Every structure is written in C-alpha cells, then in structure tokens.
Amino acid sequence: RLEEFLKKEVDLELSTVPDFEERVIDVSEVEQLMNSINAIPAPCAPVINPQAPNAATGTSLRVCWGLFSDDTVECYQLCYQPVSNERHSDGQAEHTLKVKETYCTITDLLPNTQYEFWVSALNASGISPPSERAVYVTAPSPPTIKNKKIRSCENAALVCWESRDINPVDSYTVEL
C-alpha cells in the first residue's frame, strides 16, 4: 500500500486564498506614553565624604562619596585641584576623572599637599549639580635623617632629621 501511495501525485495547493486587509495602526500615543515612562530625571548632587583615616599616602588619596536618593547614575565626574593660598588660583590645574564607582584613588599627587575635591553624577538625562567641596591632604614625605649629627652613648641616642615638606608636619614617630 505504501508503494501505491507514493506513486500518486499529491496536489499541495491551498483551497482558500487568505484575504488580508491593509490596516494602518497609529502607535504614536503608545510611543509617547512609553517615552514618558522611560524618561529618567537628571540625578541629584552627590555627597562627598570627609577624608577617612589612613586614606592617604604621600602621593595618593582615596576619595569616597554617596547619593541620598535612588537616582539612576551611569557614572560620576570627579574633579580636583590643589588648594592654593594665593588669590590668583586660576593658574591651578583642575583635573577631571570619569568614575563608575562611588570611590576613586587618585595617584601622582604631591606629598603633604591639600587638594580640593567635588563630584557630579551623570545619566542619560544629564549631569547633577556638583557636590560640596571637600579638602583632603596627602601624607607628608618621610623626613631625612642627618647622619652626621647622630650621637649615641650607652643609655641614649641623639637623632636629628629635617622635613622635606613645605607645609608644617603635626608630629613625628620615632621607632627603634
């Protein structure tokens, strides 16, 4: 029976012709509604944290900040410059970094130097106002021991050193 069936010619044409109407659907209202739902506002200003203990070396600083709102943020723009006591601080170089996290370690800084930091948040809608400015300071460079002035006896030693820092150092720790 299979052999007979395979010998038969089979007509695979559809007996009915589908009749489709041309319809134009206006989706402009839906599109406008979807765009309004997907629109996110520009973020609020971040809050920069004060300098944390042990967040500095002689040439680097770790700066942290946060948000008080549930804003959508794609990245942050961290700006900094050295603090200058001069009235004409326009000559101070302002640096800007793009950062994904809410912290950043800045390197290649000068020892025992104050730096002013501020941060803004960015998303597809725009940039936030800048945070308040915070002043961080790098650690002092190690002092230079004056080898020719070292004196010692059985119960005492005299060690002299000098600081290579421009700004005054609060204190020194001597370890034996």
UniProtKB/TrEMBL annotation:
<dbReference type="InterPro" id="IPR013783">
    <property type="entry name" value="Ig-like_fold"/>
</dbReference>
<dbReference type="Pfam" id="PF00041">
    <property type="entry name" value="fn3"/>
</dbReference>
<dbReference type="InterPro" id="IPR036116">
    <property type="entry name" value="FN3_sf"/>
</dbReference>
<protein>
    <submittedName>
        <fullName>FSD2 protein</fullName>
    </submittedName>
</protein>
<dbReference type="InterPro" id="IPR050617">
    <property type="entry name" value="E3_ligase_FN3/SPRY"/>
</dbReference>
<dbReference type="InterPro" id="IPR003961">
    <property type="entry name" value="FN3_dom"/>
</dbReference>
<feature type="domain" description="Fibronectin type-III">
    <location>
        <begin position="46"/>
        <end position="142"/>
    </location>
</feature>
